[in-house]
Every structure is written in structure tokens, then in C-alpha cells.
Amino acid sequence: MATNRAWRLESRPTGEPSMENFELVETEVPEPGAHEVLVRTLYMSVDPYMRGRMRDAESYAEPWDVGETMKAGVVGEVEESNHPDFDAGDVVTSDLLWADYAVAEGRDLRKVNPTHGPISTAVGVLGMPGVTAYFGTTDVAEPTPGDTVVVSAAAGAVGSVVGQIAALSGCHVVGIAGADEKVEWLESVGFDAGINYKEEDVPSALREACPDGIDVYFDNVGGPITDAAWPLLNVRARVAICGQISLYNETEIPTGPRKLGKLIESRAHVEGLLVRDYEDRWGEALHRLSVWVANGDVEYRENVVEGLENAPDAFLGLFEGTKIGKQLVQVGERSG
């Protein structure tokens, strides 16, 4: 009988997480009950929002308990099914576990259509990050032709798709990222300009790249980069707050300069973004995204770490900011 490896939260981190906060355990493979499905993990996603779930504090994502197996977006293969809508061999996706195997209610699973692209994209450009980018752009930011759109963490799984959708909408798109290689890639996929925040003075670079101000700011990072964008907001600008990765490891959230007065002048609209608010419209987003990906209108990059045992390393690497696109862990191979 195969064993089931699973990563548990060993302790809550103070500041930046480390390997000491994770524990790998082995258990028996679970058995599915009535209307349940046993799923073998093929690909597992690691995402910045998971840092918030390691805190003992209320947030938009429920915190994990110490000793609890952590959860992630997973693409897996059905091993055993007690649900009429799924058969062994089906490829499915859901929010499952950092583990080799997991049991899920059939109603919580979505089948993956392999004709739309590699199955790994079901937790990337054709999954939660892509859907977040789609609705964050089309419903929250609402870019119109001729707008200037600025995206922070622009080479990430969400930001890169946001910028490409904005470019398809006829906008002037500026991406902020942390390496020359990232800037070069952004410009190759439709961004009009890129700023390397580690090498350039961001306020000056933004003023140069956005001579007519900013109509849309898609914020994935917060902190000084957002401070630099704020003074350039145009009248009726839209700001989508998707992530604040620059603050996730802070033990105390810095106050920073008081910039809300700019909203009086600009009458800008600032809105937070949670993709779960769009659960009933995922089909719409996946259809549009799959067409764009198939046509080459939206490009994507994946970074794949091999082996469940290396999942914490993949997660910790998110805070180094060295990778382009979506970070994945490959746990298994499809059978047959």
C-alpha cells in the first residue's frame, strides 16, 4: 500500500518563513467516502497569499492551524471515485492539500480540459491566477483604449496576464518588476515599457514612462512602489488592490506617508480584489483566457520544481522575486 506524504504547518513564522515552519509526515492513503473522490496530485501551486494563512490572524483566507496539513491549488488525477460525475483517470482541479493524495467532495472538483493547454495551466494562466487577472482587469480596473495602465509585480502569474489583457484593450502598459530579464520578457509579450525597481529610481522612471499620468494601477505589492504610483493617478483613475507581497513578512505593518488626500484631487476609485467573489463566472473567464492562450495573444511562463519534498523551497522562493511567471511543484505523472 502506498503511503501519503503531506506537509503540515509545524510552527508560525515570525517575519520571513523558513524550513523550520514546515513538517513532512507520512500517513496512509485516505479512502473516499460517499460522493467523494480520491485524487493523486500531479501539480501543486504555491502562491504569496499562503503567507497570510500561516498567521494566527483573521484575513480573507482562513489561517491554518499549527499541525494542520496545508492547502493549495492542485491539478490531480482521479484514482478512485464514489461520485457519478468522475471516473478514474479524469484530470481535475481544486483547492486540495500539500500532499501526494487527497480526498475531496465531488461537488468541489472541476474537470480539466486538456485541449485548452498543458494541464499545469489549470493552476496558472487557466486557473486562479489567470481568472484573478481577468476579473481584476475587466471588472475592477476597467481599462479603455488609450489608458495608461501600470502593473506592479508585472512578471508574476497574475501581473503578466493583467498587462497583456490591458494591451489587448488598446492601453499603454507599464510593468514594474525586479530584474532586467523580467523587463525584457514583459516587453516581448506586449508591455510598452518596463521598470526594474531594483536598479531604477521608481518615481522618476514612472514619471518618464507615464507622461500623461496613470489611469489604472494594478497593485500586487504595496509599499514604496505603490507610494511612487500614487501621485501620478489621474482624475477618475482606477486602482485594483490584488496583493501586498512587500508587506507579507512584516511583523508590524508600516504606516508610511499619508497619501489618501490624492483621492480627493483625483476622485480615483480604489477597490480590493478577491477572486472568490467571481466563482459563478469562472466559465466566462476560462473561455476567454483559453482562446487568448491558444491564439498566442496571452503568453505565460511556468517554473516547475520537481518533487513534493521540495514544496517549501518553492514557496520560500516566492519572496526572493527571482522567477518569471507561475511557480509550480510537480508531484506526479499522469498514468497511461
Précis, in short:
It contains 9 helices and 15 strands. The protein has 336 residues and is an alpha/beta fold.
Please render the helix and strand layout as text:
Blueprint: E1 3-9, E2 22-28, E3 36-45, H1 50-53, E4 71-81, E5 91-97, E6 101-105, E7 110-111, H2 128-141, E8 148-152, H3 159-168, E9 172-177, H4 180-188, E10 193-196, H5 202-209, E11 214-219, H6 223-229, E12 233-241, H7 261-266, E13 269-272, H8 282-295, E14 302-306, H9 311-316, E15 326-330
Helix pairs in contact: 2-3, 2-8
Q: Strand portion, in percent?
A: 25-35%
CATH homology superfamily name of the largest domain:
Medium-chain alcohol dehydrogenases, catalytic domain
Query: How many angstroms separate the termini?
Result: 20 Å
Number of strands: 15
Radius of gyration: 20 Å
H/E element sequence: EEEHEEEEHEHEHEHEHEHEHEHE
Please give the CATH class of the largest domain. Alpha Beta
- What is the overall number of helices? 9
Share of helix, binned: 10-25%
- The CATH architecture designation of the largest domain is Alpha-Beta Complex
Oligomer: single chain
- Overall pLDDT: 93
Biggest β-sheet, characterized?
Answer: 7 strands, mixed
Secondary structure class reads: alpha/beta
Unreliably modeled segments: none
Number of structural domains: 2
Q: Which topology of the largest domain does CATH recognise?
A: Quinone Oxidoreductase, Chain A, domain 1
Which shape, going by the Cα principal axes?
globular
